[in-house]
Structure formats: C-alpha cells, structure tokens
Amino acid sequence: MGSFERRPIRDGLHQKPYAYMASMNLDELRALLRQRCDEAGSVRAWALKHGVSPVYVGHVLAGKRGAGKALLDALGLVRVIRYTEKK
Length: 87
Hints:
By secondary structure, the protein is an alpha+beta fold. Helix content is 43%, strand content 22%. It has helices spanning 26-40, 43-49, 54-61, 69-75; strands at residues 3-11, 14-23.
C-alpha cells in the first residue's frame, strides 16, 4: 500500500536522515478505511468506536466527501500537501 520515498524526517528538534515514509492516494486511503471497518465488523461499529458519524464514513468510502482530521486521526494518518518544480 502506498509508495515509499526517501527523504529526511523531522522528529521534534531532531532530524532523522533518509527515513522512509509511506504515502497513499485517495483510493488507497479508502481501501484502508474499508479494511478497518471490516475488521471492526461494520462501518457503524468502526465509526462509533472512533467518534465519527457512520454516514460520514460511508460518504468517504463512496468518494462523496474527503477525509477530515477526525477520520485521519482515527486511521493514524496525516494529510500532507506537496509541491514540486515544473519540468
């Protein structure tokens, strides 16, 4: 799941040179969410355990809404925005 990129990672005041961070796209995030819901027994069970609306989780799974902070926190993820140079 996701690709691994070699880049420095900051941890508080220290920097770990060339640690590996997994990144994923929206489809992979939805697959992870689906897997966690299946492990919990249902979308409703997972959502209630993590304090988010089951309807909201269903909308994220269906691609109707993006994943917000509460859902990302429950999955142990963080949103990262990246910019690169034009080629």
